[in-house]
TrEMBL record, chains A, C:
UniProt GO cellular component terms: cytoplasm
An MF annotation (GO) of this entry: dihydroorotate dehydrogenase (NAD+) activity
Binding site for FMN: 39, 63-64, 118, 146, 184, 210, 236, 262-263, 284-285
Cofactors demanded by this protein: FMN
Purpose of the protein: Catalyzes the conversion of dihydroorotate to orotate with NAD(+) as electron acceptor.
Domain of life, source organism: Bacteria
Protein name: Dihydroorotate dehydrogenase
Principal location: cytoplasm
Organism ancestry: Bacteria, Bacillati, Bacillota, Bacilli, Bacillales
Automatic annotation (TrEMBL), chains B, D:
Native source organism of the sequence: Sulfoacidibacillus ferrooxidans
CDD domains: DHOD_e_trans
Keyword Iron: yes
Taxonomy, superkingdom: Bacteria
Entries under SUPFAM superfamilies matching the protein: Ferredoxin reductase-like, C-terminal NADP-linked domain (SSF52343), Riboflavin synthase domain-like (SSF63380)
PANTHER family noted in UniProt: DIHYDROOROTATE DEHYDROGENASE B (NAD(+)), ELECTRON TRANSFER SUBUNIT (PTHR43513), DIHYDROOROTATE DEHYDROGENASE B (NAD(+)), ELECTRON TRANSFER SUBUNIT-RELATED (PTHR43513:SF3)
Similarity comment: family membership: Belongs to the PyrK family.
Pfam families in the record: DHODB_Fe-S_bind, FAD_binding_6, NAD_binding_1
Entry protein name: Dihydroorotate dehydrogenase B (NAD(+)), electron transfer subunit
Length: 322, 259, 322, 259
C-alpha cells in the first residue's frame, strides 16, 4: 500500500458556506464555483482523485494533449526560484488517442465535473486533428487551446505571440470544434490586449491567461543553465502581479469571459483576479505546494465573501474597475 | 499533508542530520515500504516554494515516529537543519513505491552511497525480520560522512569503504562487487548518487544478479501531477519517461536507462 | 542629529579579497568591480554617501533625469509583492538643470566613481535636449537611455517596445552625445533579441536590462488597484529568472557589452548574470532592503571567486554558455 | 542596519503590541528625536521584502533600549507579532526628522489617534523635561484599543475620547479642539490617521495655533533613495512632492497639503 491513498483520509473539513452563492456562469454553463486546476498542474486528475472528491472543483483542466505521444524534455525539468518555479516539461503526454481511451473515461465518474482539455501542438494541422478527435467525445466541456507553451522548440509559442497566426489557428479550430474554445494566452508579448482582441475577433469563446513567463536559472557551481532545456516557464506567486495586470487590461478590452491565473495560492489571491475582471480562476503551482490547494481556495473564497457580506461571488467580478 | 511535531533532531555527521518526527500516517494502520519518501516543506516561506523529498530511514511503530537522515546540500536543507525539537513540520507522505521484498529470497545484498544509505536501514530491518540474510556494502566520502553503520549492523554484515580510506577500505562500493562475492545473494537493492547506481547496474547485470535501484530526480509535486521528475526506462522494448515520484523512486534495475 | 548619519559607522567590514581581480573592462574604461546601483534605486547618491564611501562602487547610475522637473505620480506609489515590489514613482526628479547644478557636482568628490546618468522623457526632442545639456559636463561617464519606464503615460514606453522607434531615438541621441550611450531595455516585449539587435544597429554603445515588468496589485478590501497609478513596475527577486533569460539571449545575439539586472540580492545572484553573459550588473530593489547591498554584493562576489579559484571576475562572463 | 535583540514583547491592547529591543544606535552618544521612526524587517524571507516603519515610542538611555508600539494591520505586522524575546531583529534607524522643540514655548498640545499615539510618548517626555506644560488629547476606537495613557499621564494632563464611548468621552479628538481650549497652548503636535490630521490641521489653522503633523505614507527604503513615500507640500508658493522618510515624517502643519 502506498502513501497517496492513505492521505485521502486527511482532507480539510469541507466548510459549507451557506450564505454565499459560489456559482459562476461561464459560456452557456454554470460552474459550481470559479476555481479549477490549471493545465499541467493536475495531470489527468487520477492522482488527485485519491485525495479528494473532484466533484468539488468548479471544473478540471487536464494536461496538454498532443496528436502523438510525447516524452518531453530531458531532466532536470524543474527549478525553484524566489516565490516561484521554472518548468520545462515539454508537453509530455500519451497523445490524444490514449488520452481518450485511458484518461478521460476515468473522469466521467465525476458527474458534476466539467472537463476542459488543454490542446497543444506544433502546426495548425496537429491542433485541428486533436480537436477533431476530441469532438467525438461528449463528456468534454471545452477545449483550451495552448498556443503559448514556452517549452517546445519551434512549437506553439509562435502562435501565442503573433496575432495573425493566432487568428488562423483559432479559425481553423472553430471549424472543427463541437465544444467551446478557450484560448490560453502567453504573457511573453509586448501587447497582451492586441493578442486578446485578435483572438476574440477570430471567434474564441473565452480566454485564459497567463501561461508561464520565460525564464532561466544558472547553476553557478556547474556554470550552466540548471534546466536541461536551458529556459523554462516561470510560475507561482512571483508572477501574480504581471498576471493580474494582464487580466485587468484584457477584461477591459474584450467581452468574452476570461479565466485568470498566475500565482494563485489563497482565496484572497483568487479574489484579486476576480476583482480584476476574471470570470473564473485556475490554480497551478499551488497544487504542488499543497495538494489540497484548490479546495482550500474554494473554502477561503466562500469564507471571505461571508465575512465581507458578499452574497454571490459574481459580485466580485470586475469590482476593482473604476 | 500533515503538520507534525519534530521529536528529535541531531547532527550525526559532517552536515548530516537525523530528524525524527510524528508520522503523518498511522504506522500501525497503514505500514510503509522501505524506499518510500517523505515530501517536506522546510518553511512556509515562498522562498522555498517546493517540498524536499527525503527517504524514510526508520519507523518507530510503537510511538508512531518516522526518521529521515539528510545532508545539507543547498539553502533548503540548510533551513531544515535550523528546525528545533517541538517545531511543526509540513509533511506529505510516505509517497511513492519502495523496495519490494521477495518471499523466496534467502539473502539480499544492499548497496548504498552517501545519503543514499538511509532507506537501506528500514529495508534491512524488514528483510531481516522476514528471515533473510542481509549484507550491506556502504561507501562514504570519508569517516566524517559515514552514517548509520551501527543501525545496519544490527540486521546483518556491513562492509564500509571510503573515498579517502579514513574508514574501512579505501575505494568505491563497486570495488567490492566481485562475481564471487555477489554469487551468494538472490537480489540486490541499491541507493546512492546516479554515477554509483549506473556502475552498480552495469556490474551486477554482468554478474546476473537481479535488483532494484532507487532513483533521484528533482521533484515538484511528489504525487504524480507535475511530470517533472521523470526518468527513462525501457518497457516491452519501448523507451519511455516515467514519474519517479509515483512509479518509483525504486525501479527494477533492468528497466532503468542511463544516458 | 538624525539617524542616517549615525548608521554610517556600522558598515560591513570591507573584506579585501587579495587574490581576486574584480576589475571589468567596460567600453573604453575599466570599472574597479562590476557592481553598480540601478537607476531610481540610489537617488543621486547623496543619502548613500552618508552610509559608505561611494568610491567602492564599480560605478553609480543616478535617478532618471528629464528635461523639466517632474513631481511623479500620486501615492501610494509602492506595493509589496511575493519576492518583489511594484513601483509607480513616475520619474519624479528636479529636471536636468537642477540635476546638473545641485546633484551631479556633489558626486565629483568621489574621484574614482564613474557616473552614469539615466535619461528619460516623453518625445525624442526631450531626450535629445537632456543629452545635449549633459554633454557639457565632463564628469559624466555615460548616458543610460531609459526608453522603457513603464510608469509614464504616453511616455517612453513606446520607444522601448518598438524597434524602429528605438532606432530613431538612438540615432538622434548619438548625434549629440559626447559620451557613450547605454540603452536600457524593457522586458515587456515579445522579442528582446530583436530589440537588442535593433539598438546595436542604431549605434548603442552598450545595453542594460531589464527594466521592470508591468504589474498590478488589487487591494481587495477597497476593491481597487493598490497603486494610485493602477499599474507599476515589478522588480526584485521575483523577476530574476526572466532577467537572466533575457541577458543570456541578448548577449548571444549582440557584440556590445550588456549590463544585467533584475532581482540581484547577493553575490551569487550577480554571478548568475555574469555567467549568463553580462559584463557588469546593477542592483536596484536590494538597496531598499539592505542599504549596504551593493558593497555586500561586491564582497560576496570576491569571496565566491576566491573560494572557487577564480582569479579574475572576467573569467565568469558568459561562462554558462555552452 | 543592525541586528538587535528583542528585550520584551507584550500585547497591550486588541492586536496592539509593545516591542522593546536593543537600540541600533548608542542612545547616550547620539540621542533621538521624538517622531523619528525605526525601519524594521519582520523576517528575512522575501515574502516580506520591504521594511515596516514604526515610530519610536520610548527610549531607555540607561539600558540602550528603544520601544515601538504597533497594531497588527496586515501580514507583516502579524509576522512581527510572532517574534519572541531573544529573537534577533534587523532594524534601520532611527530615521527621518522628528518633532522640533521650541525653546520659548510654555505649553504644548499633543493630539494623537490610534497607533499615531506612540511617538507622542517620547515627545511628551522631552517636552516635560524641557519644562513645558503638556496636555495630550488622544482618540481611540474603543477601550480595547486605548494604549499608552498612563505613560502620557506621567508627563501632563490627558484627555481621552473613544469612538464608541467605552472610555472617556464619546466622539473624535477634534471635538475637543475648541478655540477656548486651544488658546492655552503655544503649539500643537499631531500624529494619527490622515483624515484626523487633515481635520486637526483645518481646525487649528482657524484657531491660529501653529503645529506639526507626522505623516504616514507607504515607504520603501526609508532613507530617501526610492522616492516612493512623498507627500505634497507647499513651499514658497510652490507645490512639490517631498520625501516623508527623509524630510519628514514630521512637517510643519502649514505647509502640508491634502488632496
Ligand atoms: C526520492 C528522493 C529521496 C531522497 N532522499 C534523501 C535522503 O534520504 N537524504 C538526503 O540527504 N537526501 C535525499 N534526497 C536528496 C534531497 O532531496 C536533496 O538533497 C534536497 O532536496 C536538496 O535541497 P536543498 O534545498 O538543500 O538544495 P537546493 O539545490 O537549494 O534545492 C533546490 C531545489 O532542487 C531540488 N534538488 C536539489 N538537489 C536535488 C537532488 N539531488 N535530488 C532531488 N532534488 C534536488 C530540491 O528539492 C529543491 O526543489 C532524496 C531525493 C529524492 C528524489
Ligand atoms: C513614519 C511611520 C511611522 C509609523 N509608526 C507606526 C507605529 O508607531 N505604530 C503602528 O502601529 N503603525 C505605524 N505606522 C504604520 C505601519 O508602518 C503599518 O501599519 C505597517 O507597515 C503595516 O504593515 P503590514 O505588513 O501589517 O501591512 P501590509 O498591508 O501587509 O503591508 C504591505 C506594505 O504596505 C505598507 N503599509 C501598509 N499599510 C501602511 C500604512 N498605513 N502606512 C505605511 N505603510 C503601510 C507596509 O509597510 C508594507 O510595505 C507608521 C507608518 C509610518 C509611515
Ligand atoms: C509543471 C507545469 C506544467 C504545465 N503544463 C502546462 C500545460 O501542459 N499546458 C498549459 O497550457 N499550461 C501548462 N502550465 C502552465 C499553467 O497551466 C499556468 O498557466 C501557469 O503555471 C501559471 O499559473 P500558476 O502560477 O498558478 O502555476 C504548466 C505549468 C507548470 C508549473
Ligand atoms: C523605486 C524604483 C524606481 C526606479 N526608477 C528607475 C528610473 O528612474 N530609471 C530607470 O531606468 N529604471 C528605474 N527603475 C528600474 C531599476 O533601475 C531596475 O531596472 C529594476 O528595478 C530591476 O532591478 P532590481 O530587481 O534589482 O530592482 C526603478 C526601480 C524601482 C524599484
Ligand atoms: S514530482 Fe511531480 S510528477 Fe513526480
Ligand atoms: S521611503 Fe524611499 S524615499 Fe522615502
Amino acid at each position: 500500500m502506498t502513501g497517496q491513498e492513505n492521505t485521502a483520509n486527511r482532507e480539510l473539513p469541507y466548510r459549507a458556506i451557506r450564505n454565499v452563492d459560489l456559482t459562476v456562469p461561464f459560456l452557456d454553463m454554470n460552474f459550481k464555483n470559479p476555481v479549477m486546476p490549471a493545465s499541467g498542474c493536475f495531470s489527468f486528475g487520477r492522482e488527485m482523485a485519491a485525495l479528494y472528491d473532484l466533484n468539488r472543483l468548479g471544473a478540471i483542466v487536464v494536461k496538454a494533449t498532443t496528436l502523438d505521444e510525447r516524452q518531453g524534455n530531458k531532466t532536470p525539468r524543474l527549478a525553484e526560484t524566489a516565490a516561484g518555479m521554472l518548468n520545462s516539461i515539454g508537453l509530455q503526454n500519451p497523445g490524444v488517442e490514449r488520452v481518450m481511451s485511458e484518461e478521460l473515461p476515468y473522469l466521467t465518474q465525476f458527474n458534476q465535473l466539467p472537463v476542459i482539455v488543454n490542446v497543444a501542438g506544433t502546426a495548425i494541422e496537429d491542433y485541428v486533428m486533436v480537436v477533431q478527435r476530441l469532438s467525438d467525445m461528449d463528456s468534454i466541456t471545452a477545449i483550451e487551446l495552448n498556443i503559448s507553451c514556452p517549452n517546445v522548440k519551434c512549437g506553439g509559442i509562435q502562435f501565442g505571440t503573433d496575432p495573425a497566426m493566432a487568428q488562423s489557428m483559432i479559425r481553423a479550430i472553430k471549424e472543427v470544434a463541437r465544444m467551446p474554445v478557450i484560448v490560453k494566452l502567453s504573457p511573453n508579448v509586448t501587447d497582451i490586449v492586441q493578442m486578446a482582441v485578435a483572438c476574440e475577433e477570430a471567434g474564441a469563446d473565452a480566454l485564459s491567461l497567463i501561461n508561464t513567463l520565460i525564464g532561466m536559472q544558472i547553476d553557478v557551481e556547474h556554470k550552466r543553465p540548471l534546466l536541461a532545456n536551458g529556459v523554462g516557464g516561470l510560475s507561482g506567486p512571483a508572477v501574480k502581479p504581471v498576471a493580474v495586470r494582464m487580466v485587468y487590461e484584457v477584461t477591459s478590452a474584450v467581452s468574452i469571459p476570461v479565466i485568470g491565473m498566475g500565482g494563485i495560492m489563497t482565496g484572497v489571491d483568487a479574489i484579486e483576479f476576480l476583482m480584476a475582471g476574471a470570470s473564473a480562476v485556475q490554480v497551478g503551482t499551488a497544487n504542488f505546494v499543497d495538494p489540497y490547494a484548490c479546495i482550500r481556495i474554494i473554502d477561503e473564497l466562500g469564507a471571505w465573501c461571508d465575512a465581507h457580506g458578499v452574497r454571490a461571488v459574481t459580485e466580485l467580478i470586475g469590482a476593482a474597475k473604476a | 499533508m500533515s503538520l507534525v511535531k519534530i521529536h528529535s533532531h541531531t547532527a550525526i555527521g559532517s552536515e548530516i542530520y537525523e530528524l525524527t518526527f510524528v508520522s503523518p500516517v498511522d504506522l500501525q494502520a497503514v505500514g510503509c515500504e522501505p524506499g518510500q519518501f517523505l515530501h517536506i516543506r522546510v518553511t512556509d516561506s515562498f522562498d522555498f516554494l517546493l517540498r524536499r523529498p527525503l527517504s524514510l530511514c526508520k519507523m518507530d511503530i510503537e510511538h508512531n515516529l518516522v526518521t529521515v537522515v539528510y545532508q545539507v546540500k543547498g539553502a533548503g536543507t540548510k533551513r531544515l537543519s535550523e528546525k528545533q525539537v517541538g517545531d511543526v513540520l509540513d509533511v506529505l507522505g510516505p509517497l511513492g513505491h519502495g523496495y519490494p521484498l521477495h518471499a523466496l529470497d534467502r539473502a539480499a545484498l544492499l548497496i548504498g552511497g552517501g545519503v543514499g544509505v538511509p532507506p537501506l536501514v528500514e529495508l534491512a530491518r524488514q528483510l531481516q525480520k522476514a528471515g533473510k540474510v542481509v549484507h550491506t556494502v556502504v561507501g562514504f566520502q570519508s569517516n566524517q560522512h559515514a552514517i548509520l553503520i551501527s543501525e545496519l549492523a544490527a540486521y546483518g554484515a556491513v562492509t564500509v569503504v571510503t573515498n579517502d580510506g579514513s574508514l574501512g577500505r579505501k575505494g568505491l562500493v563497486t570495488d567490492e562487487l566481485t562475481n564471487d562475492f555477489c554469487s551468494s545473494y538472490d537480489r540486490y537493492y541499491a541507493c546512492g548518487p546516479t554515477p554509483m547506481l549506473q556502475a552498480v547496474q552495469q556490474i551486477l547485470e554482468k554478474h546476473k544478479l537481479p535488483g532494484y535501484l532507487s532513483l533521484e530526480e528533482r521533484m515538484g509535486c511528489g504525487i504524480g501531477i507535475c511530470v517533472g521528475c521523470v526518468h527513462k526506462v525501457s518497457r516491452d522494448g519501448q523507451e519511455m519517461n516515467v514519474k519517479t515520484c509515483k512509479e518509483g523512486p525504486v525501479f527494477a534495475a533492468q528497466e532503468v536507462l542511463f544516458t
